Inverse folding.
């Protein structure tokens, strides 16, 4: 008898939960959105977000301006591209030990530099769901965020924006919840694959959170082919750089370390690079 009462109480609770679910207005999506449309996307239909020179100057986006300011990023592009092509890699993550080393700045510069090669299709994603900031640099706040896309709540097309003909960005309008769990989920892997199949990019660049700040990278790096570690001169702790380089090497292929914010660089761009892969 007690068992029966307990079972009935459980059933009542379950029914209430179902009714609550149905009544909640915001829980609409993940059911309706297909993981894959199966159709190649026509990039010319993606809304354009112009990126103006004044903004590029303000945010150190030299790769848009060209000339001397673009040189270090073009060098980085050529070296990264050579290694990626040799190994048939398409997914590149940009990370750093601590915050504010220049990941987002370098990710956008590298994407723009790659996109200057007109035969390339480049995608840049903001995968820093704790403190996203690429949308602030680009000055475009999408109606939805990449973390909603990767949960299956929103189609990628609703977030995608085009900076140039062959550079599509996936940004966030604000932070997302539980990023570490999101990167661990099967859904995330499936959606990322679906985006790659439908959009057919040559290179996908992921701006990611700093490694010392959280454990997001542990699962995220398993989904990329390679990574660059950005360290800031006179700011990044040597012990952190050492630790992150080793950890990153266990999670993915390390393309190299970018030494950023160098006060005494070889050139005028405040930027250095060395490649130790191979
Ligand atoms: N080479 C550089 N020289 C001087 N300042 C730079 C350089 N690169 C980036 N910065 C500046 O450093 C600040 C942090 O850069 P950015 O946002 O790219 O770093 P981040 O690693 O993405 O930070 P976060 O970890 O918060 O996402 C910005 O104000 C940016 O303009
Ligand atoms: Mg950033």
């Amino acid at each position: 008898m007690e068992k029966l009462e307990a079972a009935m109480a459980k059933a009542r609770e379950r029914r209430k939960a179902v009714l609550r679910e149905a009544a909640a207005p915001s829980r609409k999506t993940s059911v309706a959105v297909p993981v894959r449309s199966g159709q190649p996307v026509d990039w010319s239909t993606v809304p354009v977000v112009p990126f103006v020179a004044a903004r590029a100057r303000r945010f150190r986006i030299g790769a848009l301006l060209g000339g001397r300011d673009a040189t270090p990023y073009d060098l980085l592009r050529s070296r990264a591209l050579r290694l990626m092509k040799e190994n048939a890699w398409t997914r590149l993550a940009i990370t750093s030990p601590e915050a504010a080393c220049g990941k987002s700045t370098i990710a956008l510069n590298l994407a723009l530099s790659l996109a200057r090669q007109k035969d390339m299709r480049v995608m840049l994603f903001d995968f820093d769901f704790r403190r996203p900031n690429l949308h602030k640099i680009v000055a475009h706040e999408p109606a939805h965020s990449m973390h909603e896309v990767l949960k299956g709540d929103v189609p990628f097309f609703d977030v995608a924006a085009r900076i140039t003909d062959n550079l599509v960005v996936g940004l966030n309008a604000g932070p997302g919840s539980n990023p570490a769990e999101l990167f661990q989920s099967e859904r995330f892997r499936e959606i990322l694959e679906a985006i790659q199949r439908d959009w057919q990019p040559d290179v996908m660049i992921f701006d990611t959170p700093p490694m010392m700040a959280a454990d997001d990278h542990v699962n995220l790096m398993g989904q990329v082919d390679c990574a660059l570690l950005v360290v800031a001169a006179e700011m990044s702790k040597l012990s952190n750089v050492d630790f992150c380089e080793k950890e990153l090497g266990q999670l993915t292929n390390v393309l190299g370390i970018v030494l950023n914010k160098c006060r005494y660089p070889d050139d005028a761009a405040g930027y250095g690079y060395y490649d130790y892969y191979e």
Q: What stands out?
A: The longest helix spans residues 2-23.
